[in-house]
Amino acid sequence: MKFLLIAISFAMLAVSCSHSRPYVYHRQTHELLHSVLWMQRSAEYRAACETVYLGAFAELERALSDTTWSAATEQQPPFGRKPPAIIVDVDETVLDNSPYEARLVLDGSSYPMRWDEWCCEEKAPALPGAVEFLREADRRGVAIFYVTNRDVKLDECTWRNLRAQGFPQTATAEQVMTKDEREGWGSDKSTRREYISRSHRVIQIAGDNLDDFVGYKKSTDERDGLANQYSAWWGTRWLMLPNPAYGSWERALLNYDNTISDSVALRKKYDALRPER
Q1: How confident is the model at residue 29 (pLDDT cuts 50, 70, 90)?
Q2: pLDDT of 72-89, one tens digit each?
């Protein structure tokens, strides 16, 4: 009898296993975990940043000598005799905010929690290759403009952070252009690029977001189209730094809707995946 009960139990277990869906373990981790680890701990991230800035250095002489060359779509002719300038974004282009992102992961929070506090600590390190490239451009007489969408109230601490990291042309905060510093200088950086191009020939632009170069609040398909349209400019006039943590690429997936819940946003991201199966 005992043997029969054991046999029946095994049979029932086998039937149960054959009809049950396999157990899948879902990790409850912060969405930034892998991207922040890559930016902080991988040799590949450092190599990618240095590759961008070494490439920019290689193109600098050509950009300076060719007076028909401009990197700003807002640049209006004639501009050949204007002094040269380089426009750089700040966050994840010349300054590394991954320590702030790491805090978000560990605290289980999200931007903009404690963002202003982090900026005012003035501790963001320089991205690999950024200081060296901009110092060389400065040595060759190129004006450097730090165009950032940090709020105007963070202008002074941003400038001090840049100066502490050894970036050129930071004796004063004049070269740092923050959002809303002037009327019309909103999140769309085209107005600031246009302002700079009035007095300078913009020879290169560096950023980590398509909006740093062209377009603003475009759909994913429109962004792809713009990237293809200006494909000849990448690595020469336009210098794109890698940033898997955040950006307009993410906001475009969410249709720039800042009101949706985290769960809805996460569902939209899953829906955007292309498994090709």
Answers
A1: confident
A2: 999 999 999 999 999 999
236 and 170, same structural domain?
yes
190-213: pLDDT as tens digits: 999 999 999 999 999 999 999 999
The answer to whether 205 and 234 have CB atoms below 8 angstroms apart is no
Closest C-alpha among 214, 239, 243 to residue 57? 239
Q: Render the burial of 210-233: b for 16+ CB within 10 Å, e for the rest.
A: bbbbbbeebeeeebeebbeebeeb
Q: Could you tell me which of 223, 239, 219, 89 has the C-alpha nearest to residue 149?
A: 89
Residues 127, 206 within the same domain: yes
6 found inside a domain: no
Is 84 in contact with 70 (CB distance < 8 Å)?
Answer: no
For 104, the domain range is 30-243
Handedness of CA 103, 109, 112, 114 (dihedral sign): negative
φ, ψ dihedrals at 170, nearest 5°: -120, 25
Confidence of residue 147 (pLDDT cuts 50, 70, 90): very high
Nearest to 113 by CA among 104, 122, 121: 104
Q: Has this prediction a pTM greater than 0.70?
A: yes
User: Nearest Cα to 70, choosing from 186, 213, 229?
Assistant: 213
Residue 218 and residue 175 share a domain: yes
Examine the domain organization and report whether 172 and 217 are in the same domain: yes
The pLDDT of residue 45: 99
State whether 136 and 164 are in the same domain. Answer: yes
Cα–Cα distance for residue pair 277/275, rounded to 1 Å: 6
How far is the C-alpha of 232 from the C-alpha of 148, rounded, in Å?
A: 25
Q: Cβ–Cβ contacts within 10 Å for residue 192, how many?
A: 23
